[in-house]
Design a protein that fits this description.
The chain is α/β, with parallel strands linked by helices. It has 2 domains: 116 residues, NAD(P)-binding Rossmann-like Domain (Rossmann fold, 3-Layer(aba) Sandwich); 81 residues, Alpha-Beta Plaits. It is built from 5 helices and 13 strands. A 6-stranded parallel beta sheet has the order 3-2-1-4-5-6, sandwiched between helices. The longest helix is centred in the middle third of the chain and has 14 residues. The protein is elongated, with a radius of gyration of 21 Å.
């Protein structure tokens, strides 16, 4: 894929590092000194300029991009860049980092944002959900909250432990996406046996309780 990353602070630098080996990554950075440093250190193409300028995005090849990440230190710049990426350059997947939680409500499709990353919200949610000691944790909210990715950790007390998938009832509204078994990602079949310690990933509508139980006959 062709990925454009606007802003190469901590988040932008990490994403660039993780993705540059398998994908074509172009960084847009307005700080000239930082831009040179990123180009030398990470060996990727760096465009020096403002990501909220159409000419800069055009130089970065936004019209050919598969993914655009707005990760500058300013919400206003991120939002304008996302709007340009989506509406002017028709980038399929636009992701934006939320810097000020008060601006979270602006990060929606009206501004061209497909996925908003709010680190404060993610950490708060993890703290709240872990504090309940529940087995089910919501990992991610997509499409403006219309879809969630939910993880269920299988313990010795979980009904499904050591049972085949064909014996397990999946609640309506929950789609079983994968099972994480140790370091493996398993696409389950009816014969797949769920083990203690496995993590079951569901895609579901918000509010849907993806608990598993004995198959309904």
């Amino acid at each position: 894929m062709r990925i454009i990353i606007a802003g190469c602070g901590t988040l932008g630098r990490r994403v660039t590092t993780y993705t540059k080996e398998k994908h074509e990554v172009v960084v847009v950075e307005k700080d000239r000194e930082r831009a040179h440093s990123i180009a030398d250190e990470l060996g990727v193409q760096v465009i020096t300029g403002d990501a909220d300028e159409p000419s800069t995005l055009e130089e970065a090849g936004a019209d050919r991009a598969d993914v655009f990440l707005a990760a500058t230190g300013h919400d206003e710049d991120n939002l304008v860049a996302c709007l340009l990426a989506k509406n002017e350059f028709k980038v399929k997947k636009v992701i934006a980092a939320v810097r000020n939680p008060r601006n979270r409500w602006l990060y929606n499709r009206s501004w061209g944002v497909d996925v908003a990353i709010d680190s404060a919200q993610i950490v708060s949610r993890l703290i709240e959900e872990e504090a309940t000691l529940a087995d089910i944790v919501t990992l991610l909210s997509l499409r403006e909250g219309e879809v969630t990715v939910t993880a269920l950790t299988v313990s010795e007390e979980t009904w499904a432990a050591n049972r085949a998938m064909k014996e397990i009832d999946i609640p309506e509204g929950c789609v079983l996406a994968a099972i994480l078994h140790d370091s493996e990602i398993v696409v389950p079949t009816p014969e797949t046996v769920v083990k203690v310690g496995d993590v079951i990933l569901f895609i579901a509508r918000p509010g849907t309780e993806c608990k598993i139980s004995e198959e309904m006959v």
